[in-house]
Design goal:
Chain lengths: ~450, ~450
């Protein structure tokens, strides 16, 4: 029996941040993390191990355990197979029993089983956050010439892009690119940027079956329109689901059978049991519906909320739901999104107005390395509250979306943005007379103000 | 007599944005701008015309007039010498009389006369936002080998850096670098980054006199400690003052005799007369004192407020004072600041706590082009409200400070930041487990939360 004060199951970003934060807040408490793998991958870095940026999956591994062990966190490599909430003990596959005072579930997510036949054939891969799997998959994919990537969410699009740059022939199959995060005109632009001689985009085609040879090895994909393509392997990037087997088996309440129910303090329905990250329920900041949005940044925010509230309520979660804030790089161009798209807003019958402004990320335009920068703002038609933003540009797009994240989070209006105080500098940003976030707000406001 | 509806005096960023915004809001109104120069310089770009980035001052000129003329703004090149507020007419040096319904003063700022003898000698330059002056100055400076730059605010530091990179020998004279925007430890780091074989930094030395030869041409600088240096020319970057001669002469109320008094809607004490930008009073968001902070981004925000409220009150200024938000590049490293420094806070007897976190701007660290990124947060000790932030890093620092600007503007606390939702991406930002804004907040909070 291993007795601890705070037990964390799962060693992804949520689990590791929770462990370190607990050590900071409660230096006298023993903090233990049980995780399955010895190593960890940076989850959002996985697509980039297939390209030229990182030499191998080893380069994407993080010494997260190292950092937390330095802070006094105990790490065990084991798989918890059962939890007895009454006895306050978790039982490992190894036979070890871990007794706890407070328990945090951070079991993450796993690839969703796709609706396609033969997905279990040889040469078909998922993209789990499992270092050993990714290492083997990487070695195998290296040997292939033509690869079908099924799924046009961010993992599918990023992997397809990386493989193409590495010289592989890629068939990308799915709906318009990143449709949950971007409106159609931005997906179109993304498609142009992604165009690469090595990529064939089978847009709006549905994959029905993975074709296999006699050795049950993937050799192609059949679409539901009857067409077929040949390939040496298939990567299924068709989404993730919360990893809740353990929670379910141990009797925790799940929301719609999918994610662990949690309140504002990340407490589950069981006393002294918290859940954070991909396995915990996420509600949308605006629609208030349960949504399958899984982001490491949200997971770490939840980890900090749970850690703060483990023993006493100390920290009210100041976000009212996930704002689905997200950035990526496609064909050398950065795309970022936060909040709701205009298309999704329409589906939810939200009355919106929007404006898109194209500017540049330096000023004057004659400065070297000047890039175009586009900002789309989506606001509620009556109140002018900003509920969505999409940005295209160069590297600073990554932080620009975080300005918009705070704006959305704090329910700021387009009127507030008209007199937003921003720093501008020739080498770093667009000019003060044309700062695109402000200009987009201005374009929405015109018509509301006037004599 | 030229009759117009909306007359704007001054064609800098504030005046031009006001003119275009007025045309957007009031398409039936005639909008006229009277400015002295035919051309405009991007003000914050001026230091960079002395280096290798821009080939000549011409590259820093903006077609601002072009953009507004396309929107139907009438431009006149003239200098207004008097305003008759009762008759509602402004009189130009040319003899032309401009009648108006609403008047916006955007007369900007001019270099402050320094407390040093012989500042009017040959070979001594100020840094006004005057294209003709800068063109001539640029030509003259090109011929010089050794130049003394007096003043270590952003213009002085940027020009000194650019000249050194261009191969000039530079004597930089002043207090610690950018002391109003950065705490001492950041100034020290900046100094290291700025160190260049071509720069001699005369730190904390006061210049007493510019030494001149028989032709009354600058040949050196004498310090008040008796030492002297030889140089071919002197650049005085010793600050700016509001350009309010016209306002004063015409009888407008000035605050402490320096800036034009304005209320929250940018109205002066005279009916139908507004003032915006550097010539208008600025109050500090926290100390509430009048401060000599002059930023193009604040000026354009004020332009939008004035334009919206010209005929009816439409837009409450949502900022409670200037947050002095600012970014620059020194020796290839970006430095940015918003709000108040710890040093200034102490002077104003504000009880603060602070934390500095050093992270990296990509993750994992093995990614190419990974840079260090440091964030310092200053918060009020009791409430935890964030009142200041300083960032050092690479190009995305420029937008990162704007996240912090919104955080300060919206009076967010370090507790709010613990669960800030941010987008993170391997190629664009630090990792979600170590995002430096959140981590700095966390380090401030530790000790407040615990069992």
């Amino acid at each position: 029996m291993t007795q601890t004060d705070i037990l964390i199951i799962g060693g992804g970003p949520a689990g590791m941040v929770a462990s370190m934060t607990c050590r900071q807040y409660y230096p006298s408490k023993r903090v233990t993390v049980v995780k399955e793998q010895e190593k960890s991958l940076v989850p959002c870095g996985i697509p980039y191990v297939f390209g030229n940026l990182l030499e191998s999956p080893e380069d994407d591994m993080i010494p997260c355990g190292e950092r937390s062990e330095k802070m006094g966190v105990k790490l065990y490599h084991d798989r918890i197979v059962e939890i007895d909430f009454d006895e306050k003990v978790a039982i490992g596959e190894s036979g070890e029993r871990y007794g706890y005072e407070k328990l945090i579930l951070a079991t993450g997510s796993v690839p969703r089983e796709p609706k396609i036949s033969n997905w279990d054939a040889e040469g078909v891969f998922f993209v789990p956050k499992d270092p050993d799997y990714i290492l083997q998959m990487h070695a195998r994919v290296q040997e292939m010439e033509t690869i079908a990537v099924i799924g046009t969410g961010f993992i599918g699009v990023e992997i397809a892009g990386e493989l193409a740059h590495k010289g592989k022939k890629v068939h990308l199959v799915g709906s318009r690119l990143l449709k949950h995060a971007f409106d159609p005109e931005l997906s179109d632009y993304m498609e142009q940027k992604m165009l690469h001689e090595n990529i064939t985009f089978h847009k709006d085609r549905r994959s029905k079956e993975i074709l296999v040879n006699e050795q049950d090895r993937a050799v192609g994909v059949a679409f539901d329109d009857g067409e077929r393509i040949a390939c040496d392997g298939v990567i299924l990037a068709t989404g993730y689901r919360a990893n809740t087997e353990l929670a379910k088996k141990s009797g925790l309440s799940l929301r719609q059978g999918e994610t662990i129910y949690v309140d504002e303090y990340m407490r589950t329905t069981r006393e002294d049991v918290f859940a954070i990250g991909d396995c915990a329920e996420k509600r949308h900041f605006l629609t208030k519906r349960t949504v399958p949005i899984m982001l490491a940044s949200t997971a770490t925010a939840e980890a900090r909320v749970a850690a703060a509230n483990l023993y006493k309520i100390n920290l009210v979660k100041s976000f009212s739901g996930t704002i689905d804030i997200f950035s990526t790089v496609i064909g050398g161009t950065c795309f970022a999104s936060a909040g709701i798209t205009e298309e999704d807003a329409a589906k939810h019958r939200i009355n919106t107005v929007s404006a898109t402004v194209i500017g540049s990320d330096k000023h004057p335009a004659k400065l070297p390395n000047n890039h175009k920068q586009a900002v789309k703002l989506v606001a509620m038609a009556n109140s002018g509250i900003v509920i969505g933003a999409q940005v295209i540009g160069s590297i600073d797009t990554g932080e620009m979306i975080n300005i918009l994240g705070v704006i959305i989070e704090k329910r700021m209006t387009v009127f507030d943005l008209l007199n937003l105080q921003v720093a501008t500098h020739p080498l770093l940003t667009s000019g003060p007379t044309a700062y695109p976030i402000v200009q987009a707000a201005q374009n929405i406001v015109v018509g509301h103000i006037g004599s």
